[in-house]
Structure formats: C-alpha cells, structure tokens
C-alpha cells in the first residue's frame, strides 16, 4: 500500500514531516482537581487528575513521596469496531503503566509525601497516537491541578514507511506494518522520559525517526504552553475583575 | 478570607444545616430557586468514530453517548426485530468517589433504569432495524459515558441516549444474494446481480422520553439536584415522561422522606414543565446539526 503518494502527500493530505492539528481545552471536568481534553487530528482523549489526596490504601502509602496512580481506558465507540473491554486488557494495562512512569518522572513527588495523585485518561476517539495524546492531556491536567512538576512533559510519535520518516502516524499508517517510535521528553532540558519502538527498522534510519518524533514532541510542548498561558491569563482577568 | 474559611468549615461539619439555611430562604447554594433546573445543552458529533453521538451537559453533569451499529442474526422468536443494547459507564474521571476497579453502585442502577426507559418508551421501533427477515438485523450498541458526575445523572444520561439515537445514521449497506452484508461504497447504484443496496438513513424514532430528578425533604421539593444536594437529601424521585404526557417510569427508592400523593402530583407537574424545556432544547439542537 502506498502511504506517501507521488506528489509527496500522505493519505490524509499531510506532508511527511507535518503533524496533525492539535487542539486542547482545560477544565473540562469540574469535579476533578485538574482536567484537560487533547486532540491530535482525530484522536481525542480526556485526562482528569484527582489529588494530591490521602492514600486510599494505607499499606501502599510512601513515607517520603507521593504515590502516583494512572488508569488508561478506551471508550467502546472509540475505535472502528466496537471495543467491548476498554480497560483491564493487556494493552490498556501496559499503556497505564507507561503513562504513569513517564509522568511520575516529571512530578516532584517528594514535595507531597504520604499522599496520592490519581491520573485517569479516557480515550474518546482513537486514530493513532493515543499514547502520546494521553501523555499530553495528562501533563496539561496535572498543570491545571497545580501539581508541581520538573517540566511539562510532551510526547509525539513518528514512523518509517515507503522509505520516508513520517511524523505523527494516524491509525491507518500505524497499521501499515512499519515501525512506530513514541517519544516523550522534558522540552526545556531536552531530556527523554519515554522512548518506545515496535516492529523493525534499519539502524541507520533510527536517528532520523527519533529526532523527528522529538521535534514533534517539542512542537506539542510549545502548543501546550500557549494553552496554559492563555488559561492563566483568563483566570487572572477574572480575579482582577472581581 | 476568614469568612470563607468559616463558611467552608460549617459546610463540611454540618452539611444538612448548611443546606437547610438556604432551603428555608427558598434558594439553593448555587443561587437557583428550588424548582429551577440547571442550563442544559446538547451537541452532536462529539465522537466521529461512532455512528451517532451526543454530548449533553446539565450544569456540570456531562454525559457522552455514542451509538454504534453492528449486524446480527435476529432471535428465532423475533425474526423481524433488531436489538438495542444500552450500557452506562461511570469512569473514574467523573467523580472523586469513583475508584478504578470498583464501579460505582449508581452505575448499575442507572444502566437498568436507562435500558428500561428506552425500551418501554418505544422510542426505537425494533422492527425498523430488520435487514433481511430471519437472517440479518441491526444491533444498536449505545454506550453512555459519564464524564462529570454532578447530580441528576439519569436525566442527563437519558437525554444523551435519545439525542445519540436521533443523530444516528444507519449506513448504506449492500446485501449480497448469499446473505453477506457489507458496507456499501459511497457511489453504490441500484440493485444488480442479486446485490441490494440501501441508502444511509436516520431512524424513525417514536416519542422521546425525558427525565427529571427531584430531591425532597419534609418541607420542600428540589428539582435537578447537584451531587452535593443529592448527598445531603437522601430521598429523590425520578419521573420519566414522553411528549404526550404519558408516564414512562417513576422511581422513588426509600429514603428518609416519605412522599404524600400531593408531593407526587407536584413532582409530576415539575416533570411536565421540564419535559417541554428539554424537548425544545433537543429539537433546536437537532435543527442546528442538520443545517
């Protein structure tokens, strides 16, 4: 199958190094301490953060830092075929772990000992890159909840098909049999928190694809920072108006 | 600042008295009169991966309903009928009280009430879902996700379900002579070679059911309670009506307040008023979406 046409355009009309359109909203769940909705093209996820609060299971309490929990689940209507079990299956459990570990590295957990922070992510529409969208949404939700972090984690994925590195694969491209490299990094210090790759790829191409994903993550980080700034400005306006 | 802390402390230590102070003045903590419902909005196409979807907000309570169609073999005793399967989910994002691994009790109760309301109201005529009698029919999977739980969950869930069904687009299919059914390509022409094509269509729905939750204590009725109000006033009554003022369902499950017949009549009156508002909101939203 041809993923990059003769004019150099992909199936959805993008160029190989072009990311999908990003859209984020903060405060979508009033009940939560912090929440965000993040869209990357047709992939749409909601993240909600509850915490820091008292640890529910006393035996799991950590004396010197906060306990971070994460649950990833997919809505039944999120994929092409209806998904009967959106959580508790292997894939969801793996992604929950990945998101938790990525964000735990960013949260200054030793500032909140003996407490618990819950991060819940719900995928509403899945079109490739759900892992990255979830990490981005969770980072925004944590920021909105005011939880102190080392840096704003941002993530993006890239692949390699038809001899070209492609940024931000959608579902069709992801199922194309080529490699899928997901990167999450701390943009300010340029350090990688998460790096995952599946399928096969020649060693000489890895550097390019990895750099591409890292650039994508930095672009996502710039957008996320803009959204947070705007949100803070709106809040400041409300406070000074009253 | 100190006053805020005192009010907050009073609210936490004596929640019942806190609410009573407001109710005695015929108003609620968020400023609403006792019988007014929160602003309600309906929007469509929230989820493009579903065949029909609706996002409903009643105040902060947010419900996302998605309907997906799959083909199935009809049951032997109802060869001309399809099926409607409803599932209501309260994921942990919706409330601090819902923890992963332990579904909220309310989720099961609301699933039951929602399924009963939709099936008994006849809003979907299952015979309309038949494709080939005895061989193939549509199964509608309706999944309702609570994204934010702030009271009156059944009201919002029912509105979201009805809206998603109204928005649902049955896809064009082609039925081959040997009984195989596949989605038709967008430019399919009329029947040839024993292959039948159908057009994409909306469902012909019956009368929409609408719900109103009313919390009560000995002295007053509080329409459309928030989660806070529901927690303090442990008694509530849910009335489900349709457009011809027929009662689809009534739920009152115990609670410390017992209701007289006058109270029930008052609840019904409140529900009738609310139904008119919800019908307008839904019809307006449908009109906007088909433009």
From TrEMBL, chain B:
A Gene Ontology biological process term: U1 snRNA 3'-end processing
Keywords in alphabetical order: Cytoplasm, Exosome, Nucleus, RNA-binding, rRNA processing
Annotated ranges, domain Exoribonuclease phosphorolytic: 37-171, 208-273
InterPro entries xrefs: ExoRNase_PH_dom1, ExoRNase_PH_dom2, ExoRNase_PH_dom2_sf, Exosome_comp_Rrp42_subfam, PNPase/RNase_PH_dom_sf, Ribosomal_Su5_D2-typ_SF, Rrp43
GO MF terms held by the record: mRNA 3'-UTR AU-rich region binding
Classification via Gene3D superfamilies: GHMP Kinase, N-terminal domain
Similarity comment text for this entry: Belongs to the RNase PH family.
UniProt-recorded name of the protein: Ribosomal RNA-processing protein 43
Source species of the chain: Selaginella moellendorffii
